[in-house]
Amino acid sequence: MNRKNFIKLLIGGGAMITTNQFYSWSKDLNEADTLMPVLFIGHGSPMNAIEDNEFSQRWHKMGQEIPEPRAVVVISAHWLTRGTFVTAMNQPKTIHDFGGFPQALFDVQYPAPGEPSLAVEIQKMITNPAVELDHDWGLDHGTWSVVKHMYPNADIPVLQLSIDYHKPAEYHYQLAKQLLNLRKKGVLIIGSGNMVHNLRMVAWDKMNVDNYGYDWAIEMNNIFKNKILSKDHKALFEYEKLNSAAKLAIPTPDHYYPLIYSLALQTDNDKVEFFNDKLVAGSLTMTSVKIG
Fold first, then answer.
1. CA–CA gap between residue 292 and residue 272 (Å, rounded)
2. What is the DSSP string of 20-65?
3. Mind listing the domains of the chain with CATH numbers?
4. Which residue ranges does the record assign to the Extradiol ring-cleavage dioxygenase class III enzyme subunit B domain (predicted)?
5. pTM for the full model?
6. What pLDDT is attached to residue 90?
């Protein structure tokens, strides 16, 4: 088999990516002396996408503070699958995966390009489990609501990696570790969810009260931060064993798993910084983490 046909076979037919694209990404991404930071971002309400508030302002500032990435890979709480997928299209669509919000939010488009060749690199990096290339998903609000503030020109390639919702937290931790080399190659990895996320217990009458949280939410926010600072990752991916409040903070793990991906990419030399460390409406936290 010649090299061209081999590449076409490797990427599932070659319709979405050229041989030249594949080789240019592989060759150009030399390992750097310093690692790109990793972020976990509490994304909260989709309205943060169009509101100029303290959370969106901090996302914008973060985009200016860290080195400009070659590409962004997001693990969003809103792409739950059976198996693991990575977006591999040239131009991912903007997904409006919500309801009941103003038309202005549905009008938002974030036309960042994809990077199919990077999707292939990720597919190669993650040897267990097998990762499939996806050409249908796009960018959901867990991604674009944040990244549009960080990179408003939409000129940096953005990909999403799905969450196999049928697997436990430790599975995701071990999977994410295989992405460490991306940090050496100028790729920004973002987990996007919320550490404390219980929509059933939202205090709607307290939505506009600054930093309002139930006692159990405050307790769990502090526990999570202390475990992150002490690098006790095992306790965090075995969160069910922490205490009874953990079940209130994480009634379902969809918004928590992105944190596990970010933590898995922490090295011994990485510093940890918290930002947007606030509670919202009693049962949500916007607490976010910069690693590195």
1. 6
2. HHHHHHHHH-PPPSSPPPEEEEE---GGGGT--SHHHHHHHHHHHH
3. 35-291 (3.40.830.10)
4. 51-280
5. 0.89
6. 97
On the question of pLDDT at 73 being above 70, the answer is yes
Helix%, strand%, coil% for the chain, nearest 5 = 40, 15, 45
Q: How confident is the model at residue 34 (pLDDT cuts 50, 70, 90)?
A: confident
Query: What is the DSSP-derived secondary structure letter of residue 128?
Result: S
Interval 57-65 mean pLDDT? 98
Q: What 3-state class would DSSP assign to 83?
A: coil
Q: How far apart are CA 191 and CA 40, in angstroms?
A: 5
Q: Is the pLDDT of residue 25 over 70?
A: no
Instruction: Tell me the Ramachandran region of residue 264: left when phi exceeds 0, alpha when psi lies from -120 to 50, beta otherwise.
Output: alpha
Separation CA 55–CA 276 (nearest Å): 6
Q: Compute the distance between CA of residue 199 and CA of residue 219 in angstroms, rounded to an integer.
A: 17
- For residue 15, the model assigns a pLDDT of 35
- DSSP reduced 3-state for 158: strand
| Omega before residue 67 within 30° of 0, cis | no
Write down the H helix ranges in the chain: 3-10, 19-28, 54-65, 103-106, 116-125, 141-150, 169-177, 180-183, 215-229, 233-237, 245-249, 257-264
With the C-alpha atoms ordered 140, 143, 146, 152, is the resulting torsion angle positive or negative?
A: negative
Residue 22 has pLDDT above 50, yes or no: no
Phi–psi pair at 124, nearest 5 degrees: -75, -35
Q: Which two tokens stand for residue 171?
A: 């599975």
For residue 2, give both structure tokens.
């010649």
Mean pLDDT of 145-150: 98
Q: What whole-number distance in Å separates Cα of residue 261 and Cα of residue 124?
A: 18
